């Protein structure tokens, strides 16, 4: 749980947008174990990083804005 970031999207958000956000900040499949979508219609996505350090690095790079 401590490696998971919940991303809440806005209307039109997609898993591809979450992956593109990760890549644009220098995070690849080497840093992320999984990306999963929440229940349909909620536009939420869980991003599981390889370790807590990578999660904190991602939050720092995006200033908490996704």
TrEMBL record:
Superkingdom of the source species: Eukaryota
Record protein name field: Uncharacterized protein
Origin species: Dreissena polymorpha
